[in-house]
């Protein structure tokens, strides 16, 4: 089924066009024109979201769960059209779009179940102690309340799961917060059809129209106006460090600063401990190459850095990785800009004297071929830029002479989404020495796996110290992510008739 976008914004239940348009830049097929967002539309969407909050923020959990499940149903009802436009716009393969759609609807349904269970409210009660000496204690109750309209920015590399009705939107709607999405210019048609699904769910469930709006971009001023709008109470952002930092700074500089939950890039270091390198260096090199090239390396959890022992055993890891990467075919990148940024990132490595190319390729147009570089830990620690994400299938091997050197390297790392240990039982002592360090550096620690692939679950943490995220106490994946859009309120000596739902 082919989907032809109309190119309009969805503002509080109405599809609105604009005179000025921007063309989409699909990886294949026809380009379409999309209405450019304006600050006037931002204002309308935020006013409508605030108006909706007065009912939606006080709706029952059952009503919200039914609404969120209906969004999932409406997305499934448009499955073929979503995959059609999604594959054309992003260049991602059909199986990936289908899988990501399942993840997106599964995530919505998980949040519906989660709020029905009610434990996310974290209700607490300290009963009154009228006879306590020297002073009586009042009756105290606490519960988590939704905070108001939320701005959501999706990422180019997850056009469904981290976009229009992705994790941030699901968590905010589950919490009771209306959402204004700034559409991603890399997949505006995919954003439009998903917004259609949300729109249909709003009508079916008789929800207030302002509970969801989608404003297409085409002008950076739109996103900037959105995060600065006085009615917006928090921002969920997935994207680049540069974009995230710019918007975070705007949030902090507002007369009323608001939380900016930015999930940004990461190089996700993988430590290959000595015994693991000895016993399965070749297999680990091959496995790393596979993880590094998955989705053209366009994952925030891409394991861009492998920390590997010096010597023949480490050499086997590097040789196996290089051989596997050499055979990997060129893959289409999400946008022309991302493809250019990948080439620029490679050029940054080529300019470094302390870095040797193991596999150097020339990528053309929107295609990416893998690249592999090698350095030592002293050079890595001296050159901060080597630790910056290159979005794409580029790997850096850092050779170390001892576990102490691995510890120093770990101490020098910036905040990460994930850190992986490849280890055997005989590496346990070395791993124990690394654990206290890496726990301070990353949101998720893995053993004997690869970090690409983030389970949507109660225990998941997808976040980490800056620059992996702008708020290391939070996660953008999994049920805990709902806490970003809630705040605790204490009710003292409150009669039952005045207490909110949840007690
Ligand atoms: P991006 O270029 O930062 O774009 C994200 C969104 O922010 C877009 O809507 C973009 O608008 C907007 N934006 C960016 N800079 C802005 C600015 N200065 N002012 C106003 N709006 C701005 O990110 P991306 O290319 O989509 O995503 C790739 C990056 O995301 C990679 O670094 C990847 O590692 C990271 N990522 C992180 C996670 C995670 O969970 N941590 C997940 C996936 C991806 P336009 O539409 O106008 O471009």
UniProtKB/TrEMBL annotation:
Keywords: Oxidoreductase. InterPro entries: Ald_DH/histidinol_DH, Ald_DH_N, Aldehyde_DH_dom, Aldehyde_DH_Superfamily, ALDH_KGSADH. Residues 32-328 form the Aldehyde dehydrogenase domain. It comes from the Bacteria. GO terms for molecular function: oxidoreductase activity, acting on the aldehyde or oxo group of donors, NAD or NADP as acceptor. CDD domains: ALDH_KGSADH (cd07129). The keyword Oxidoreductase applies. Pfam families: Aldedh (PF00171). Gene3D superfamilies: Aldehyde Dehydrogenase, Chain A, domain 1 (3.40.605.10). PANTHER family: ALDEHYDE DEHYDROGENASE-RELATED, SUCCINATE-SEMIALDEHYDE DEHYDROGENASE, MITOCHONDRIAL. This is NADP-dependent aldehyde dehydrogenase. The lineage of its organism: Bacteria, Pseudomonadati, Pseudomonadota, Alphaproteobacteria, Rhodobacterales.
């Amino acid at each position: 089924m082919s989907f032809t976008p109309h190119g309009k914004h969805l503002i509080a239940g109405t599809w609105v066009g604009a005179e000025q348009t921007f063309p989409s830049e699909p990886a294949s097929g026809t380009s379409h024109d999309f209405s450019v967002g304006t600050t006037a539309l931002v204002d309308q969407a935020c006013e409508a979201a605030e108006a909706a909050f007065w009912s939606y923020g006080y709706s029952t959990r059952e009503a919200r769960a039914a609404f969120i499940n209906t969004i999932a149903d409406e997305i499934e009802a448009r499955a073929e059209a979503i995959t059609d436009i999604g594959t054309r716009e992003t260049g991602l393969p059909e199986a990936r779009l289908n899988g990501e759609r399942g993840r997106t609807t599964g995530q919505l349904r998980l949040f519906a179940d989660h709020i029905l269970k009610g434990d996310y409210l974290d209700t607490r009660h300290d009963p009154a102690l009228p006879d306590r000496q020297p002073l009586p204690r009042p009756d105290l109750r606490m519960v988590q309340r939704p905070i108001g309209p939320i701005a959501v920015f999706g990422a180019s590399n997850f056009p469904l799961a981290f976009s229009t009705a992705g994790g941030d939107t699901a968590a905010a709607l589950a919490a009771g917060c209306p959402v204004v999405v700034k559409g991603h210019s890399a997949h505006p048609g995919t954003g439009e059809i998903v917004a259609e699904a949300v729109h249909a769910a709003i009508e079916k469930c008789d929800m207030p129209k302002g509970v969801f709006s989608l404003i297409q971009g085409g002008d950076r001023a739109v996103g900037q106006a959105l995060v600065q709008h006085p009615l917006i109470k928090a921002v969920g952002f997935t994207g680049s460090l540069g974009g995230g930092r710019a918007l975070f700074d705007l949030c902090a500089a507002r007369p009323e600063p608001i939380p900016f939950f930015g999930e940004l890039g990461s190089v996700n270091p993988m430590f290959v401990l000595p015994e693991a390198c000895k016993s399965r260096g070749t297999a680990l090199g091959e496995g790393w190459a596979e993880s590094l090239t998955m989705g053209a390396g366009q994952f925030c959890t891409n394991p861009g850095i492998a920390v590997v022992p010096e010597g023949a055993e480490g050499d086997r890891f590097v040789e196996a990785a290089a051989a596997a990467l050499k055979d990997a075919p060129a893959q289409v990148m999400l946008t022309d800009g991302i493809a250019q940024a990948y080439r620029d990132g490679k050029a940054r490595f080529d300019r470094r004297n302390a870095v040797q190319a193991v596999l150097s390729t020339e990528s053309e147009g929107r295609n990416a071929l893998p690249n592999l570089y090698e350095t030592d830990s002293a050079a890595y620690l001296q050159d901060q830029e080597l630790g910056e994400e290159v979005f794409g299938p580029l790997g850096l091997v850092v050779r170390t002479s001892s576990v102490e050197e691995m510890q120093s390297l770990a101490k020098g790392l910036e905040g990460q989404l994930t850190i992986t240990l490849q280890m055997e039982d005989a590496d346990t002592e070395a791993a124990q020495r690394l654990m206290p360090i890496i726990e301070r550096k990353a949101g998720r620690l893995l053993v004997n796996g690869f970090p690409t692939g983030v389970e949507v679950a109660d225990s998941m943490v997808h976040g980490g110290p800056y620059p992996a995220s702008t708020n290391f106490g939070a996660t953008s994946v999994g049920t805990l992510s709902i806490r970003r859009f809630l705040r605790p309120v204490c009710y003292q000596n409150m009669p039952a008739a005045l207490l909110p739902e949840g007690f």
